[in-house]
């Protein structure tokens, strides 16, 4: 978001306040995270590490970070991520949720101590990025196979280990960086990221996925 704002409004002051030592999460290698940082800084984005903006600040009061750094601000975009929608499961006993509300599952994606319940998607407690592609490529085939085995009275045996981490971060319409977690970890720069994502933020791909024509075409549902 910061890269897109800076690209559209070059004279605006844009600052990222990041609680960790680097951007993104520890799932990705430091080299890629530092590369993203350098690209944003070259675009004119300011970055404050090891600092936070707590809660919902009072819009009538001057904005300060937890470390006391003042930030003149017209627009604040919280980017802490969503919370898993698992409140219904808090009533299960034995308890199945982590302290952050994620569902504890085994490698067969069955709830621990509740083998007749399966879970997948962003709600599961698994050391990977929360991404839509993980569900269709990795989680769903495991759950489908194991549900069918369970219904046939067999022990579910198909296991989920992990899916390749893929991240593409646009930095305006023509820049950015991408990461593919295969082999030693493959990184790409502006040219690939522009082609893959930055030029249209994958709108055309999303339209195609729901049966619409290309991004420039009319809004017609495919029959």
UniProtKB/TrEMBL annotation:
Record bears the keyword Glycosyltransferase: no
GO MF terms, alphabetically ordered: electron-transferring-flavoprotein dehydrogenase activity; flavin adenine dinucleotide binding
GO cellular component terms given for this protein: cytoplasm
UniProt KW keywords: FAD, Flavoprotein, Oxidoreductase
Phosphoprotein listed as a keyword: no
InterPro entries: FAD/NAD-bd_sf, FAD/NAD-binding_dom
Domain named FAD/NAD(P)-binding: residues: 12-128
Pfam family, one: Pyr_redox_2
Family: Belongs to the FAD-dependent oxidoreductase family.
Name the UniProt record assigns to this protein: FAD/NAD(P)-binding domain-containing protein
